[in-house]
């Protein structure tokens, strides 16, 4: 993994992806395939299959209940093993983004960072960033379709890090999907602003004291 540094003469773009009901969407058959690929012992796979597939549910609405049905996806809410299975299930998502400068997956929070060559003009940098962001989105969309983990585009954003005057930014579009640009974003509890001054985060912490 290479290191991406935002200097005074270049820029970097970050994409923060969010998944729809991430833990509730985990596909059992897909999990089995990935565990096999990781050479997980068959008896553990069989145990997990029994543990996950034997769960039942029903829907109750205004005192009317549906018939009981078997669950085909999702991990038990509040369980210790749920987050572990989710991480195992998505262990290969970073491989699908192998050309990215920096990528980080923490539970269901995915962040990627890209930076163009500092030899480019500001206009060329933005063109390069938009092209690379579209490529990342295309890879994530393909991954989400294959492994039945839909992306929540209403909560997926991108931001531009630039220590000089911010160039004109816009919404990124890919295969009919739109990703909105934000000047600052909260990621894993830290507020990131476009100039990486962390002033917004400092102000937030001060307001809590």
TrEMBL record:
Domain of life, source organism: Eukaryota
UniProt-listed InterPro entries: RT_dom
Pfam families documented for this protein: RVT_1
Occurrences of domain Reverse transcriptase (ranges): 1-192
Protein's name in the database: Reverse transcriptase domain-containing protein
Classification of source organism: Eukaryota, Metazoa, Spiralia, Gnathifera, Rotifera
